[in-house]
Amino acid sequence: MGALIRLFHLLSYVAFRAGEGVIRLLPIDAAFGIGSFGGSIAYRILWRRRALALSNLRLAFGREMSQQQLEALNREHFRRLGANLLAGLKASTLDHEKIWARVTAKIPVDRGNSGWIALISHMGNWELYSHLGQRFPEYRFGAVYQTLANPFTDHYVRKMRGRAGITLFDRRTQLLSCVRFLREGGVVGVLVDQGAGYSGLWSPLFGRLTSSSTLAARLALRTALPVVPIAINTCGKAQWKMIISPPIYPQTDDPEVLTAEINRQLEQQIRQSPADWLWAHNRWKPLRPHFLFARNVRPVFFPPDFDRSTLDRFRILIVSPPSLSEASAAIPAVRAIKEGRPDTWLGVLTPPELSEMWTNSGAIDSTLPYEKTASVASVSSTIRDVAQFDAAVFFASHWKTALAVWLARIPIRVGRRVDSNSWLYNQCPVEPSKPLDAMEMNLHIARSVGATGAASSSPFESGERRNFATVSG
């Protein structure tokens, strides 16, 4: 298997270098134009990425733009993404004088002996960040780097960055060297628009909680140096503008506060040129299998001035059992799910005769009653009309509701593997080693998605910070 993986990496690297060689022969204007056309093609054929990007755009601008405007912005996003990818590859082969003839940029000249942390993101032609060392030789530039899975490509990228005068620091093993570099007056770029997984801080971006790395904030606090947001906007055919925002000096010793401010700065940059950001990346991706926070305790932070009424909720559909006794046995598990994260919004798909019981449970935000005689298409339409759900949890197995949820395109569908409809689920809890009664089995399902063992008073009721884990300074 190891030899096959290495062969795959080698072939991928050869294909990449061959493509780069073809692009090297083109003028940069032609590379930009071909990339734009390729982006239009990608928009048409990569329907999953297109749908993801549109969903992200709707999350960010759904209250400000019509559906038609969002779709037009999505098409332009794909065109610019293709154009900037090919133009970025071409730019890496050009002399830096030719590159910077196409870029307008202003960088502070008088920096004294102080370094700073550059907040960079996937905006526009982000390949231009690697040329800063050649354009401004009075600065020493570095970047925090994550090793690529393909060792051939990784070696090549490191070599090219070294030629461009960029010192790379492995985020897992070289952070002490990075701190030393900053204290000696260097400038280090840190990507701030990628998810940080279980280790990240959950804080709002465009009003929705997402995992964000605290690395930039921690480096700033460790070195007492400012962070400087940088964005690259496309302003014409193979023409770009690099925007250097004023430095932000830490006014706190709390990395959570500074990380939330970094998210706010990133949001402002994206709003200035939304078509330039990488919307086809799942920035708000819920972690699986534990998309709830309570069980494996994650830090959540709301800025003090954040308007909670604008929080975009994480919407979970509960599929109710058909009988009163079975539904009653699911209530403790549903309450545990409700308390599993601070942005939870619960809807329940239920037979009409159980609607009142679910309403009175105090755990449900909306009931979605359906008649047992209703068609699958009708039930699916009911689900879509209420909300765009992020996840569905089945406490009962029936082919009609399972198929309706699948047709409603709810991305996470949780149910037991032993159910006859399990092929319609994409997340199944491990079956317990011993038989459980109905209530314990439902709690077992809730724990499998990150809830605690039992419901309790909500930990999300007071204060700005929601400490599910201790974050060291």
Q: What can you tell me about this protein's structure?
A:
Helices cover 40% and strands 16% of the residues. It folds into two domains: 2-276, no CATH class; 308-448, Glycogen Phosphorylase B (Rossmann fold, 3-Layer(aba) Sandwich). The chain has helices at residues 2-24, 28-45, 47-61, 67-91, 96-100, 132-135, 151-163, 175-183, 215-223, 255-272, 324-338, 355-360, 376-386, 399-407, 438-448, and strands at 103-105, 116-120, 141-145, 166-170, 187-191, 201-205, 208-212, 227-236, 239-244, 300-301, 314-319, 344-350, 366-369, 391-394, 412-414, 465-466.
- How many structurally independent domains? 2
Give the % helix: 40-55%
User: How many helices?
Assistant: 15
- This entry's quaternary arrangement is single chain
- The general outline is globular
Distance between the termini: 42 Å
- Give the structural class: alpha/beta
Strand arrangement, major sheet: 1-9-8-2-5-3-4
Regions with little confidence, pLDDT below 50 for 5+ residues: 455-473
Largest sheet: 7 strands, mixed
Number of E strands: 16
From the alpha-carbon coordinates, what is the Rg to the nearest angstrom? 25 Å
